[in-house]
Amino acid sequence: FPVTIIGPATRDTASSIGLEFEGDYLGITVSNNYFRNTNFGLVSSANINRACVMDSLAVFKNTFDEIGTPNTRYVGGAINIAATTTYTAVPQWRRVFIDNNTFKSSGFTVAAIWLQVKGYYDDFKIRNNVFYDYDYSYLYIERTNGQTMAVDSILLSNNCYYSNGNNNNPKLVNITPTNLTNSNNITTDPLF
User: Fold this and answer.
1) What pLDDT was estimated at residue 7?
2) Hey, which bits of the chain come out as E strands?
3) What Rg value do the Cα atoms of the chain yield, rounded?
4) Distance, CA of 122 to CA of 62 (rounded, Å)
């Protein structure tokens, strides 16, 4: 069922999270929700010491509004997918579908979609979304030095990118994805 998740109007560097899924899962759908005033809207994490498999996450028809920390740069993201360096196990995320969402930053946010630290990421489809005002980029993929990360098959299609960092292109740090397709997107003002 749809929910509205609204964080406090004043946020600091402490993390506030709308929804978090930790560890293994198969078939989670997050749809028709409204996330506002949180550092992170949705977090999928693998902070345990075994090779978790996160399979089939569908995120569609959601609004992520004023996501991030408004007074401190580079904290937060609408969708954050990450593992910890504390453990040696390398997790997997596969079949992640992000469709028909609206992502609007608070003005000091890393990215709408942030894949970070380590892991195997495969079959991500990001389609028909609006991304507005993210500092680093709408999509930020960052491998921590010394960690194992592989990214394969990312489709970016029919999205609207406006006023995002890195000239409205994905920002990649210490990683080169295999099969990254970025097509049929526009960079015009969504007129919020």
Assistant:
1) 62
2) 4-6, 17-22, 25-31, 34-36, 40-46, 53-60, 63-67, 77-83, 92-99, 102-105, 111-117, 119-127, 130-132, 137-143, 149-157, 160-162, 171-173, 178-183
3) 15
4) 22
The backbone torsions φ and ψ at residue 166, rounded to the nearest 5 degrees and listed phi first, read 60, 35
Q: Give the residues across from 111 on adjacent strands.
A: 77, 137
The answer to whether residue 161 scores a pLDDT higher than 70 is yes
Q: What is the pTM of this model?
A: 0.91
- Nearest alpha-carbon partner for 77 in 162, 25, 20: 20
CA–CA dist 180, 51 (Å, integer) = 25
Q: Strands, DSSP E only, in 25-86?
A: 25-31, 34-36, 40-46, 53-60, 63-67, 77-83
User: What pLDDT, in 10s, does the model give residues 102-112?
Assistant: 999 987 788 99
- The C-alpha atoms of residue 50 and residue 93 are separated, in whole angstroms, by 14
Q: How far is Cα 95 from Cα 8, in angstroms, rounded to an integer?
A: 32
CA distances to 19, 81, 117, 137 from 169, in Å: 27, 19, 20, 6
Q: Measure the CA–CA gap between 73 and 95, rounded to whole angstroms.
A: 31
59-87: per-residue pLDDT in tens? 999 999 988 876 665 678 899 998 877 77
